[in-house]
Design goal:
two-stranded antiparallel ribbon; 3 helices; 31% helix; 16% strand; elongated; Reverse transcriptase Ty1/copia-type domain-containing protein
Length: 105
């Protein structure tokens, strides 16, 4: 089962909405949104732009480190599958601080 966050009565998501970037997320967290969405879930959400930025940042970092070389696939050679692991990072007050995307093998 995917981790979910459900705020108790001691936490008020309304106080988080002052920051426009995190306000949308805070409102969603109040509703119990998935903090580790699949790629398809993330791209269907209202915070899609933040996930796209996180994935772009990951790809740029991998390219800058020379992680791969694009080449023609030799006959009989299998490809390696990759997938995205997505996570919303929170601070101690349960305020979303980062949308993190990792491309993994």
């Amino acid at each position: 089962m995917e981790p979910m966050l459900d705020l108790d009565e001691d936490h008020d998501a309304e106080t988080w909405i002052n920051d426009q970037t995190l306000g949308l997320v805070a409102t969603s967290i109040k509703k119990g949104i998935n903090l580790n969405p699949t790629i398809w879930e993330a791209l269907a959400r209202e915070d899609k732009r933040l996930w796209e930025e996180a994935m772009q940042k990951e790809l740029e970092g991998l390219e800058a480190m020379g992680t791969w070389v694009i080449t023609d696939l030799s006959q009989g050679v299998n490809t390696v599958d990759t997938w995205w692991v997505l996570k919303i990072k929170m601070d101690a007050n349960l305020v979303p601080t980062k949308f993190k995307a990792r491309l993994v093998v």
